[in-house]
Amino acid sequence: MTTLAEIADHKTSVRERVWAELRKVAVADSRFHFDFGEFIADFDGGEEAVARLTAHEAYFNAEIIFITPDNCLDRLRLKALQDGKTILMTTYSIKRGFWLLDPTRIKPDLHLYASTLDGMERIGRQMTLAEIRDELPVIDYMVTGTGAINMDGVRFGKGHGFFDAEWGMLYQIGRISVDTPCAAVVHDCQVLSEQLRPDVYDTVVDLIFTPTRTIQINSPHKPTCGILWDRLDQHMFETIPPLQELKAMGL
């Protein structure tokens, strides 16, 4: 039986190998340079990858989309607002919570600013988990960047588990389910053919969009465990208010 330590070591080795290749095509971040443990990078061909996503029926059919605050998804947030789609997202490692970008309440000349992390908090509306549960319809589409992903849709992010936590929280309040389409936008060098050993809470996607390929995953096994409180890092709990709210909700 694979131990937790062995899974963690495997993930680390995969990330280090992929990040070495990613540095050749990544766009440096003004705050984090090429420290891929701190951000999900944009990359050469990112525009083409997003164009593949927005040409897919899963995007056409979505009215409300959860989009992670990754650098490679800035242009997707802008396109979604321009297309009249509502965006739910988080900011600053979920520590400042969930924010809603409603295109019916944002002037078109502010779409670009609203799609950025700085602008989003000035123009969007912050929402608690209770408000998301009680006021929003179910989420139609989940989109994320990631560190590495394989052909089975198993993804490994920066190593902090933020998207896994976002999935777990939204799942527990009933805004997503295993039937909610989930996509990853990555460079081709981040897509692996090898077997990856996911943990029970690792998110798995239905679709992978790269600059050159659209990859459909057949019957991905998505996590249904929600937040595992006995496995949750105490520092994450102490620094992420939505996790504290979820715990207080007794879900």
Give structural notes:
The strands form 3 sheets. An 8-stranded mixed sheet has the order 6-5-4-3-7-10-12-13. A 3-stranded mixed sheet has the order 9-8-11, with helices on one face. It has 10 helices and 13 strands. The chain is globular and about 45 Å long. 34% of the residues lie in helices and 16% in strands. The chain has a single domain (4-249), classed as 3-Layer(aba) Sandwich (Rossmann fold). The chain is of the alpha/beta class and 251 residues long.
Write the SSE topology.
Blueprint (H helix, E strand, L loop, with lengths): L3 H19 L3 E2 L14 E2 L2 H9 L2 H4 L3 E4 L6 H9 L3 E5 L7 E4 L9 H4 L2 H7 L1 E3 L1 H7 L5 E4 L3 E3 L4 E2 L5 H11 L9 E4 L5 E2 L14 E3 L4 E3 L17 H6 L1 H9 L2
Parallel strand pairs: 3-4, 3-7, 7-10, 8-11, 10-12
Antiparallel strand pairs: 1-2, 4-5, 5-6, 8-9, 12-13
From the spread of the alpha carbons, the general shape counts as globular
Output the radius of gyration.
17 Å
Number of domains: 1
- What CATH architecture do you see? 3-Layer(aba) Sandwich
Structural class: alpha/beta
Portion of residues in helices?
A: 25-40%
Number of helices: 10
Q: Note poorly predicted spans.
A: none
CATH superfamily: NagB/RpiA/CoA transferase-like
pLDDT averaged residue by residue: 90
CATH topology: Rossmann fold
CA-to-CA gap between the ends? Answer: 30 Å
Provide the CATH top-level class. Answer: Alpha Beta
Strand content: 15-25%
SSE order, as H and E? HEEHHEHEEHHEHEEEHEEEEHH
**What's the total number of strands?**
13
Biggest sheet, spatial arrangement of strands: 6-5-4-3-7-10-12-13
Question: What's the story with the biggest beta sheet?
Answer: 8 strands, mixed
